[in-house]
Amino acid sequence: MSKAPKKKASASSLVASSPGHSPKKEASSLVGASESPVESKKSLISLWPEWNDTDVNAEKWDAPKAPKDSKLFDDPEGKVELPSSLRIHTWKRPSDFILKKIPVVVENADTFDLTSANEHLFSSELMRWIISECYILWKVCNTREDKAVSTETVWRPWEHIYSMCKAGKDHMPLYNTYGKYVIKLYWLGSWRKITVDDMLPFDKDDNLLLPATTNQYELWPMLLAKGILKVASTDTPVSGSGREFGEFTVIHCLTGWIPEIIPLKSWCTGKIWEFLRVNVAQFQLEEESSEENTTTTDSNVNNVQSESPKLPKSRATGSVPQIVVCASYQPLHLMEKRTSMLTRMADSSESLRQYGLSQLFSHPVLLTCTRDCPLVAPPKTPPLPQWKLIRPRKQTNITDEPKEPPVQKPEQFIEVSSPFINFKLMTMSAHEMEHGGLKKRMYNSNLTSFSEMDDTEDDHFQNDIIQNSVNTLETNENTQVPAEDKKKDNSIANDTEGVESTAAPDKETDRKDNARVQTGKESSLFQSQDALASNKPLLLKTWVDLHNFTKCFQTLLIFHKPNMYPHQFKTSHFKNSISSRLSAAALSNTVASTHSVAALPKQSDLTGNIHTQSADGKGSYFLFSDNLLSTEIVIGFTALVHWGESVEERKESSTRPGCLTAKPFSWKSIISKLPVVQIQTTACKAVLLSLPPGRHVLQVHTNASLAVHLHLCSKSPFVFGDEETVMPYLDKESLRFCEQAVTIVRALGCVISCFSDPEELPLTTKELEKAHGMGIKQQRVFSEAVYHMFFSVLGRKLTSEELFAVQTLTGDPSPHGSNEKPLEARSADETPEGWTGRQATDKEMQAAIVLQAGWKGYLVREILTAARPGTKENMSVAKTLQEIWAPVESDVEKHAVSLLRHMVTNGEGIAELYPCREDECTRITFTDYSVPVPETANSWILIFREVFRVPKNMLLVPKMFSPIPVCILHVINNDTLEKIPRVFNNVEPYMYTPNKGGYTFVAEAHTGDVPVIGGKWRMRLIGSREPLPLLAREAPCNDFSVKELKGYYIPNQKNIICRHVVKVSSEHSATVQCQTSKSDVYIKLSILDHEKEVASCQGKGHVIIPVYCFLASNGSSVAQAEARQDQGSLTAEERVTGTGGGKEGNDQHPTDTLFHKYYIQAEVLQESWPLDEALSSFIQKLRDEERNEMRVFGDILDGTSMPVGTDQQNREGQKSAPKSTHKAKEKEKDKDKLALKSSSIMDLSLDVSKPHWTLRVVSDQSEAGNIEVKKDTERLEEIRAMKLAWESAEPGRAMKAHQSRLRYLKVLEERAESKEPAGTETQPQSKQSGEFTMKADKKDIDCTPFIRKSLPQPRLKNEEVEEEQRRERSEKFQSFRLIWDNILEQRKQEKTARKEMMKRQMETCIGFQDTMDAYRQKMLEAREAFRSCILKEQPRKKMEEKPMETVEKVETESNTAVQQSGRKSEGKRK
């Protein structure tokens, strides 16, 4: 396929041109400065801009001021890609091949013929679809069977072309010598402006490869086809299908109608027939009465009137939206390599041939009518005389065998219209008629089955075809043909159905034959001239039997007209790879055009919402519908899967189709339900979603490579959008709930209005019982709900008369809780004086029960009397009920909803009585809490931490909306410190119960490289109904104070990363987080209280304890702890000198629970933090620094030189001891300060490349001073206190120890130097000493356990001793048997377990067998290659080994000779 050379500038056809700009200037806005002009087409262009009449009116149609070499316009997108079945040889302009006449865009505005001059294009499937759908669209829009065609609905194909004309209604494009044309087509949810040139392709036989009319100088079919081919190039056929396109439809491109594609199956013929009867016109015969009343003598007129079809009746819910129904069949012969398709292909081809269609020429057909009656009414039976009806005889046929009644097949036919019905035969017949008559011959065409017919069948079939063609051309588009001709069409459709066709009188048959011959003579030009002379294009019809309909056609195409639906929604999503290419001008034009479409004057019944957005990745939407009747929503889905690639690039790259999935959704559940809608397409496809009555929420996921567009249409209201759009509608009660509530209240109002009517009251009472549908056990709940409704309406407690009226209305004498005072609210003055502080006796309780029973009996009698119509009490109660019912009628729906909600909430099982129970799962209420996000980068931050109080049991779902992608929410029960379970990073729906401390919601996040500026984090609490949890304070606050501690990781035996002490002055809640420099380290973070773990959490590279409340210690216990720390040196001294108390136990932890000592400790788990050997020197340096911190007298000892005499040393040490200890204490304090400074400096100058950790303790900014976190140095302080105690007890001890150590080291050095030459001699001695020690160890083996033990005194063995020994032995045997039985049972279990394990292993081995075969094959190939190499080397080795073999043979012969001589000598000796 040839393409034009790439230009240096892009096209103005892709971006809306502004006035005064040339195409090259417009294109320059799309190409970046860094892009080279040789880049691929898809990198140079963006999407076609949306249509704008202003831009088209300002379009420059003539040639701009440019160099002389570019006089004519060339499409900057390159040459149009034609189907692979059409071979392009050259490209020409109209002025190159139209020489005799000036080309025009439109010549004949009344009709067109696209079949006569385009037979060489019918080998292309795409061209056949373009021609067929243009014919279908012309017939649908320009013909009406019931009324005249209005000018508003007329469709003309050339009106999509704009050239040298203004955009407006009924415009006429003109021929442009510059060669620039603009095509208006519908694509990706909006009308687009597509610019084309007039370069036309030709093959090597000089045939035009684009559709054309019989007037070759008429250009509109070529130009329109070029624009359609551009849009069709965005579609991709299914791999392996052999088709030229996928699900692209020309009608959608020309009108914007949404195509619904339904596959046809043979087992669904009943549903197909019912659908077509409702949505397609029905053919019905005229009634007998109208035939009797008519006075017309012309039988032809009568036949035409009898065949006028009737439109389908409207549904009960309203008028049916107008739709266009088509059917299509696929070229199954392209998939004949698949064996499963051969049978289907043969059946389809045979069925299509019966109706004049060919499997080779697949195309869509229009379904125009359905028929369930014969084409000709059967003749009337002559009336019988009256005397024969007195005693009619029974007709009996005597047969030898019983006959089964014949099964009559119902009349079910579908009329299809297509321009390709018998088009080959019709062309040949017309040509022969022009040369003097019909000839019997075999036709060489793609309809190969015609060669199998006999001469008589062929002749008869030709006559039928000619008659059908002639009648089609002469009549109007409603095709009212005589009944006899339709009878013959029926005979072609089904040869067995011929009873009605032969029932006509002979005279009528002769008259029809004469009319047929006369019509054949008058049609001399037949297809060329008559088609041009007629007012409509050629579109033939035939009747197809329903039984063969599913064999002929594979899909049903239903085009929904969006303007027929009052409720619509549109949205488009583009990926950044597409939207980033849009220039500023193009993007602004897109937005402007979107608003202009939305701002069009709306029709009376049309409310549409149009949104154009840009996003990345997958899109997620929500669909909400709440209706009392069934809802049908047309979901149109358009996917853009590739853009700008050539055919070769498409074949190399695997393109996935766009996908849409819709499934029921509930925010209160994490269970994913099965999808109800699934769409996969590469172009545009629709699905009709049918929802039962009620409220429904569906989550819609869309996914496509580049862009998606959604278009939803419905006759019922719906809401579509994101969560922010849909969720506010779910806070209300459903329509079914409101309808049920209003029904109950209306029935209750009827009872009140007829309360004094003795005839109507029983009927209205039954209607009320039927409305609420509750039994006797649940009647109390209804009574309480009625009282609660009146209580809320009046806003006060009911008076005694009103309460009695409500009790009479409901028939419940029990008192209602809302009108009774609670015991806590009663004052002490109301209690009698004698009853204060005492309980009633049994007699008093029994007396009270008797009084209550008497009062209840009296009340029941009064209620029964008041409920009886006609009594005085009844009149008073009716008047009272009318008074309190008046406020209810002012807002019936509101009070009805409160009544039913009270019943459902307080009554167990009441919700199951009503169908609205299914709507409860979608009812939610929510509240939002938002805080600003800190503007930090590459850091861990705490965003939100608040406490919520739960008033009652409720199901809650927290949901986050964060500008930071990595954000996690934790919910902790403050009483038990348990975390609410999470699913991935979301907290799952959980039933929260009231507790003392509430629930803490903590949100943490990791910021990226770029800080979020001005972002807000939001949490949404979703529940079933109000009230929701309450915040512990007025407003959320995220002003936190972070204490951050860092350090290097030093491996140790306990695998401790860090350990810090926490001190708080008051009760303090904090969040603790630990993070390591290595992301795959398993960490355990713990909070210890007196070395007892109170809270812990594990993680990988990062771990957090969301919240922990540190309790402050009591004042006295703190003072005691500080006193113990101050006395640490004294206690150490007492331990050294032995002067302390013996039983006081001063070094133990206090047992007082009011004293808390918290530690934060992080550990490495599973030895998951190994360090490289390159870091050994760095780790050793850190360990040396730790040792230096533990030295108490480092400065004194470092200043000493060589050791002196012991006596002098002791004296000097004793004299200077007090001063040295005092100085040591001062220096110790200085060292503590220096240690703190060094640690802070280390934190600031931490080397990030070394293994390190970070510990963060986050508190509220207002409470930051109440907590102190520092490194745990308790062990170091104890060692220092011990050394100081030793020094105070014995002054100069440290100096002496240091000098003795130096002397010992010196001695070791001297010995090592003296023993270096004799080092080799000492080794055998060491070995001997080792052997000696081993022998000594062997002698020291203890053998006492193996020696029989003897009693200290001898004992006589008698019968008692024997019996005792026997009993002991039997007990041992029994215990052994029990053990043995247990062992046997355990072995059996192990055996069964092993068998099961073997089974699993065998299954695993079988699963691995295929993989092993592949690897084994590779090994065999390698082995064969190695073996071939060895075989090649073997001849050379054999040649080298031959001399060695001769030597070995000589040696073996000499050895055998010597052996034989030896045997002979031995024989002689014997």
Quick tags:
1470 residues; alpha+beta; seven-stranded mixed sheet; five-stranded mixed sheet; 38% helix; extended
Give a verbal description of the structure.
The protein is built from 37 helices and 41 strands. With 1470 residues, it is an alpha+beta fold. The strands form 10 sheets. Strands 6, 7, 8, 9, 10, 11 and 12 form a 7-stranded mixed sheet that branches. Strands 14-13-21-16-19 form a 5-stranded mixed sheet. Helix 12 crosses helix 13, helix 22 packs antiparallel against helix 23 and helix 30 packs across helix 34. The chain is extended and about 140 Å long. The termini are far apart. The N terminus is likely disordered.
Please sum up the structure shown.
The protein is an alpha+beta fold and 1470 residues long.
Poorly predicted sequence stretches spanning 5 or more consecutive residues: 1-45, 146-150, 288-321, 425-536, 579-617, 821-826, 1123-1152, 1200-1228, 1233-1244, 1318-1339
Helices, by number, come to 37
Query: Mind summarizing the main beta sheet?
Result: 7 strands, mixed
Number of strands: 41
Radius of gyration: 50 Å
Portion of residues in beta strands equals: 15-25%
Q: Can you tell me the overall shape?
A: extended
Helix content: 25-40%
Mean pLDDT: 75
Helix and strand content put the structural class at: alpha+beta
Produce the secondary structure layout.
Blueprint: H1 23-28, H2 41-44, H3 53-57, E1 90-92, H4 94-97, H5 125-142, E2 161-162, E3 180-187, E4 190-197, E5 200-202, H6 220-232, H7 250-255, E6 258-263, H8 269-279, E7 282-283, H9 288-293, H10 299-306, E8 323-328, H11 340-354, E9 364-371, E10 413-418, H12 423-434, H13 455-474, H14 483-493, H15 506-522, H16 529-533, E11 540-545, H17 546-552, E12 555-560, E13 567-574, H18 576-579, H19 584-598, E14 607-612, E15 619-627, E16 631-640, H20 647-652, E17 658-664, E18 677-681, E19 684-691, E20 694-703, E21 707-714, E22 719-721, H21 723-726, H22 735-753, H23 760-772, H24 779-794, H25 800-810, H26 842-866, H27 872-890, H28 892-906, E23 925-932, E24 940-949, E25 954-961, E26 967-973, E27 982-983, E28 986-987, E29 990-992, E30 999-1006, E31 1016-1023, E32 1030-1031, E33 1040-1048, E34 1056-1064, E35 1068-1076, E36 1082-1089, E37 1092-1100, E38 1102-1110, H29 1115-1126, H30 1128-1137, E39 1158-1164, H31 1176-1190, H32 1194-1198, H33 1206-1244, E40 1252-1260, E41 1267-1271, H34 1274-1289, H35 1293-1315, H36 1322-1339, H37 1359-1469
Parallel strand pairs: 7-9, 13-14
Antiparallel strand pairs: 1-5, 2-3, 3-4, 6-12, 8-9, 8-12, 9-10, 10-11, 13-21, 15-20, 15-22, 16-19, 16-21, 17-18, 17-20, 23-31, 24-30, 24-32, 25-29, 25-31, 26-30, 27-28, 33-40, 34-39, 34-41, 35-38, 35-40, 36-37, 36-39
